[in-house]
Amino acid sequence: MTDLLIKLFVKKKKTNNETASAETAERGRYVSLAGFTGIVVNLLLFIGKLTVGIIASSVSIIADAFNNISDAGSSVVALIGFRLANKPVDKEHPLGHGRLEYVSGFIVDMLIILVGFELLTSSFDKILYPTLPNVGNITLILLGVAILVKIWLFFFYHKIAKKANAASVRAAAIDSLTDCIATTLVLVSAIVARFWNIAIDGWVGIFVALFIIYAGVKAAKETIDLLLGSPPDPEFIKEIYQFTKDYPRIVGIHDVMVHDYGPGRQIVSFHAEVPSDSDINIAHEEVDQMERDMHAKFGCIVTIHLDPIVINDPAVNEMRALAQAAAKSVHPDFTIHDFRMTKGETNINLIFDLVLPADCTMAAEEAEGLVNERIREVVPNCFCVIRVEHPFV
Fold it and tell me: Within this chain, do residues 266 and 152 fall inside the same structural domain, yes or no?
């Protein structure tokens, strides 16, 4: 069914040179399909559950029905958020409106949490004032069908989220899974009431509510991380490093940064190291070409800083190796870059950046001092100017 819907409503035009704008348009069709499908399915489930819930006088079934109508509302919010996120750039937002999609995903997460607290309240009331619901076979059948539909909807959303990289659709997938578990517990409660005349609506409702709240908080945390700024995909960083190896004048890169302004809207920047004795115009031309090639391949804006380094001076290479070894002796994950050396009449000055891993608990001053000491143990007349920094990826 999922593949059929994709085939019918996401008509991908295969081209040899697929542009970033074409990928964005295709992604929009995926998100629209997910949104409209969610609205239709959840409205139908709401009508069915509300009807049997009223007939059976079951608080848990009615609460589950309103859970579905909130899902339909979430789909509407996700659709609106995606549409707003794809607005063209303007004077106030030169980098576009892509992060609005993350905001809409956060709103969906908040709705999930709100539904959980509402269900928690109604469940407590049911425990305080228990009544036995009037459950018939039609009620059991409808709840069973609803579970199967929600299972399908979870896999449907999950597939769309992977194809479109949409935070709001990913949140909807998690919500569908929690709905499936919630409806399963409601079904168990209905079966117990139907065949054993025991009212456990309230207790089941509390468990379901806590599960829904947990799922909502977890999804909200992931969305907040995207809004605050989370590390990029390590595989993407590996691709960047591998991509630069195809350019003969580039001997290395560092200070890689990835700025995320919404799905499909990334700005990548880094320093490209080139031999200091190379023709600066030719090196600059190669870096410009690399920017264009990376934009074509990854669909992101790329800014590269040209960083000349000395690689053909044996004395500089020896001192660079000494600085690298000193850094590694303090911490195996320490690295250096932007290395320069100046000689005076009696002293040697080393200037470089020392990169500490993100999980390093050592203070910057301590790390700088230890590396300086290790270098001066070998070359006493060496003075170091060290700038300590942390990686951005």
Answer: no
Same domain? 127 vs 168: yes
| Residue 170: per-residue pLDDT | 84
CATH number at residue 296: 3.30.70.1350
Here the tokens at position 330 are: 């303090």
pLDDT value at residue 17: 47
Low-confidence ranges of the chain (pLDDT < 70): 11-24, 78, 263-264
* Number of structural domains found in the chain: 2
Distance CA 317, CA 296 (A): 36
Residues 219 and 239 placed together within one structural domain of the fold: no
What's the pLDDT at 3? 75
Three-class DSSP category at 363: coil
| pLDDT score for 363 | 93
Question: Which residue, 186, 207, 228, sits at the end of a domain?
Answer: 228
- The Cα 179–Cα 112 span in angstroms is 10
Instruction: Check whether residue 293 and residue 355 sit in a common domain.
Output: yes
- H-only helix segments in the chain: 2-9, 20-56, 59-85, 100-128, 137-164, 167-196, 201-228, 234-244, 280-298, 314-330, 364-378
DSSP states of 98-111 = TTHHHHHHHHHHHH
Give the Cα separation of 262 and 328 in Å (integer). Answer: 37
Q: How many CB atoms lie within 10 A of CB 217?
A: 14
Residue 384's φ and ψ, nearest 5 degrees, are -110, 135
Q: Please tell me the predicted confidence (pLDDT) of residue 331.
A: 94
The dihedral over CA atoms of 393, 26, 170, 232, expressed in degrees to the nearest 10, equals 0
Domain boundaries, position 81: 2-228
pTM score, two decimals?
0.67
Say whether both 210 and 256 belong to one domain: no
**Nearest alpha-carbon partner for 330 in 356, 295, 294:** 356
- Statement to judge: residues 322 and 258 lie in one domain: yes
